[in-house]
What does this fold into?
Amino acid sequence: MNTTQTVTVHELAQRNGQDNVDIIDVRTPLEFREVRAVAARNVPLDVLDPHAVMENREGSADETLYVICKGGTRGAKACQKFIDAGFTNVANVEGGTEAWVHAGLPVVRGKKAMSLERQVRIAAGFFVFVGAVAAMVTSNVYFAGIPAFVGAGLMFAGITDTCAMGMLIAKMPWNQVTDGGACCTEN
It folds into this structure.
C-alpha cells in the first residue's frame, strides 16, 4: 500500500489561487449539495472509477488531482483507489470540507439536510429498541437477535470504517439529489 500525499486546505486554496486545480469531492451528492469548496466537483466514493475520472479531467493528467471529503477518511480511501489503479499524483485534503469551512475559505452552500451519520444513529437506535421491546413483550429470545445484529454491525463499522447501513441509507430516495446539485450562495 502506497502512502497517500496530503495537502492542507490553506495550501490547496493558495494553489487554486495561482492555477485552476482539479478537486473532486467524494462525499454523497446530498452532502455535496449542502456545502462544498467552490472549485470542487462531486464524484461520490461509492461510484468512483479512477480511470473515468482521469479521462474526463479538465487539466493535464500530469497535474495533481486533489481529493476532498467531509473530514479526510473517505478522501484517503479514494486516493488509495487511484493509487491502486496506477495514478499516483493524487493528494488527500487534510481535514476535508470541515477544515475548509472552518478556515473560512470560499464555499457554495445549498439545501441543508440531515447528515448520514445522524440517519444511521436513528435507524440503529430504532432497530435496537424494536428488537429489545419485541423480545421482552413476546418473551421470544429470537427477537434479541435484532439488537445483537445491529450491535455487531456497529462494531464492524467502527473497526473497518465502513458502514453497510450508511451505504444503504445513502441510497434511499430522500437522500438523492434531484434538483441538479447545489445552488445557492458563496461565503
